[in-house]
Amino acid sequence: MKLAIDKSELLKALSRLQAIVEKRNSMPILANVLLDASKKGDKGTLQFSATDLEVGIRAIQPVEVSEAGSLTVSAKKFFEIVRELPDEKVKLEATPNAYLDIRCGRAHFTLAGTAAEEYPSLPEFSPENPVTLPAEILSGMIERTMYASSVDETRYNLNGVYFEVQDEQAKLRMVATDGHRLAMVDRAIPATADGLKGGVIIPRKGLAELKRLLDEDDATEVELAFEGNNGMARKGDVTLVMRLIEGEFPNYQQVIPSEPGVQLVLDTERLSKALRRVVLLSSERSRAVKLEISNGEAVVTSNNPDLGDARDEIDVDYAGETLSIGFNARYVLDALNSLHSKEIRLGIQGDLSPALLVPTNDEDALAVVMPMRI
Amino acid sequence: MTSPPRPPLPSAPRCIAHADMDAFYASVEQRDDPSLRGRPVAVGGDGPRGVVAAASYEARVFGVRSAMPSFEARRLCPELVFLRGHPGKYARESRRIFAVFGEFSPSVEGISLDEAFIDLTGSRRLLGPPAEVGARLRERVREETGLAVSVGIAPVKMVAKIASAAAKPDGLLEVGADEVRGFLAPMPVRRIWGVGPVAERRLVECGLRTMDDLAKADPQTVEQLFGAWGTRLADLARGEDLREVEGRGAALSYSEENTFGKDVGDPALLDATILTHAESVARRLRNDGVRGRTVVLKWAEARRRTAGPRGYPLRTRQVTLMEATDDGAVIAREARRLRAEAGPGEPVRLVGVGVSGIEESGLAQLSLFSDGDPGSGDGQERAALNLALDQLEARFGAGTVTRGSQGRVERAGLSMQIKRGEGIDDEG
Fold first, then answer.
1. In the structure, what pLDDT confidence band is assigned to residue B260 with cuts at 50, 70 and 90?
2. Are B276 and B353 in contact (CB under 8 A)?
3. A373 to B366: CB separation less than 8 angstroms, yes or no
4. CB atoms B369 and A374 under 8 Å
5. How far is A206 from chain B (nearest CA, A)?
């Protein structure tokens, strides 16, 4: 393998796969990036691959290849080296004893590598009918849901976001829950998504990578496909493959309140600030705060026998009997942050029933937070 | 090799009491039945696999000890009065005893039904010199229950525990900060927390028989022998240990298990036993105002694999719920499911149910998706039912109310456990 590539392009390709390479030491080669240079006529390409066996990424760059070949090297070290190189052409060459020879300007590195044959193959997956979706819409949907998924590995079926196509509509839905709160968003898309089989759970890590890809400067569209237990997203020359979560997503519809209950319209920023202030004196673990709503006023309080009491008041348009409900402040704050609306409508059914948060500027997004018994 | 600097001892030495009831179960039986007083009494399982849970001092004269197989106890002491015992009564007495402990300090760490560490460090100014406090504590327990308790007082937990054993029966022993080394010095290394027969043999092979030997041993030798743990053992042998009394709330798990008189393979019988344990564990959770999220099923296979007391392989399976529970029906349902789906494929000699992932009940994050059993009403109805049952039991004693499907199984031995933050791994 012998080739030359612009430093900036090399850096971009390597930075993209830093989050994917395996940090745990279960299989050392998974910390490496697989470099594969090929040459057809006078056109050369370099393919970068990385995987942790759950999520994999493959990117192809046009480069000047003088000799085809492949090698794997530590993705992290390679990235650190390239980051410090001068902005010039970088010359890469595999030595016969599996070192990568890196030359740029007058700098010279030989980086120990491992033969490409030992690298596990990425799931080979080239679906027939990928659906093209606007990057911005997909990214916004991930942002509004992913935070609510569970990080508890014993609840593996909640460790991702449920993705489905709404029947006979050009509409996508994403739902995430950790058992205590839930986030859901629906979005219309320009074309029908018949080619997408719905009802899959996309793992957190895959979604995080997808979002990174969607948020890159040049991203306008992405192709998406699911088949069996695999998901694929493609943006130009970059392909992301991921293993979907096998398991059943809970019946989320039954926990979204269908009755309006007591409705309050609250200023998002005002409520966020009150919660952030008051949570300072609640216990680290529970983050319990109490919301008491009476005529014209919502009072947020917390108390902690070791620390003291906190209280903040918000004016609200409410007349009726006094309501009192407890929440984990973190859950409400997460929902407020992700809903992106100046005002939100809070629907309360009772102190032991799920509360509904809907942005006033977006009827197709919502968050549900289960209260705390206090 | 340089050893890392040891954390400095707190400026004021701590004052920890270890209170241990004398022959607890047997004493309760003797108190309640005058005809048993002055006679050798043992409480425990009387089946072929039964073991002695407690022996009165009259029985100990004959060499009867707790954890001894019942048949051996009978052989040593033919006139031994062997009783199956009253677990509900012991639990009730235990609550009264712990209430007394609570009068002396807010920091009480229960080790079992009849033994606890009580942190008196902060009580000194309020209550007076430790020996006087200890004497008053012993009086109060006798006043309240008519039972004898022995108390050891020392600046370190392990030393307090050894002191209470040395004070038995019906005594008090205080080991002051400057007496600790001398008190421990002649004791065999076996008395150190965590040293079992295997570690003991290795220590003795290196010529380290007493705590003094270990305290004075070359740190490098000890470290080579046992690694970092060895350094800790040597610290303990010098009476240096900063472990605090862990008050309530530090409980990590609650469990109950029993050994069967005869091996059991019948799933229906296992399920009945599981329900009994689940209800009992749930009641203790509710008593302590906590709930648990992980249900553990434990069993020991009936087929012996190796020689010795650990020859029967112990297995556990566990499942984590969406929401913490203190409901026996939920715990039983999950434990039975574990039994059916991943449980023993062959007869067992022991089965137990435990709950871990303990959290306070008062401040509970509710769950969106219910774990409640659809067949038995919703969570709030269940909570009301459990409360009513708890009140009945508190008034009329354990076993007043049982579920229709709850089994009456011949049990050789019943053991209740609460595991706390730092394990106390000696054999009591």
1. confident
2. no
3. yes
4. no
5. 24
CA distances from B303 to B47, B266, B311, B414 (A): 19, 16, 9, 20
Q: Cα A203 from chain centroid?
A: 9
Report CB contact under 8 Å: B365, A286: yes
* pLDDT of B8 higher than 60: no
Contact by Cβ (8 Å): A298, A266: yes
Say whether pLDDT at B304 is over 90. no
Cis peptide before B106 (omega within 30 of 0): no
Q: What are phi and psi of A88, to 5 degrees?
A: -140, -175
Considering only CA atoms, which of B99, B176, B90, B175 is closest in space to residue B137? B99
**Is A374 at the interface with chain B, CB within 8 A?**
yes
What's the rounded mean pLDDT across residues A331-341? Answer: 95
pTM equals: 0.60
For residue range A185-215, list pLDDT tens digits in order: 999 887 766 667 668 999 999 999 999 999 9
Distance of CA B381 to the CA centre of its chain: 32
Q: What residue in A sits closest to B367 (Cα-Cα)?
A: A180
Yes or no: say if A290 and A300 are a contact pair by the CB < 8 Å rule: yes
**Token pair belonging to B216:** 């004075």
- For residue B366, the chain A residues in CB contact (below 8 A) are 180, 352, 370-373
Contacts of A352 in chain B (CB under 8 A): 366, 380
Residue B248: burial class (beta carbons within 10 Å; 0-12, 13-18, 19+): middle
- Chain A hits for B323, Cβ within 8 Å: 179
Q: How far are the Cα atoms of A15, A75, A78, B411 from residue A82, in angstroms, in the given order?
A: 10, 11, 6, 70
- At residue B70 the predicted structure's pLDDT band, cuts being 50, 70 and 90, is confident
Give A155's contacts in chain B (Cβ within 8 Å). 320, 322
Prediction ipTM score? 0.80
User: How far is residue B83's CA from residue B257's CA, in Å, rounded to a whole number?
Assistant: 19
- Beta-bridge partners for A243: A230
Give me the total of CB pairs closer than 8 Å, taking one residue from chain A and one from chain B. 44
Provide DSSP, A147-203: GGS---GGGGGGSEEEEEEPTTSSEEEEEEE-SSEEEEEEEE-SS--TTS---EEEE
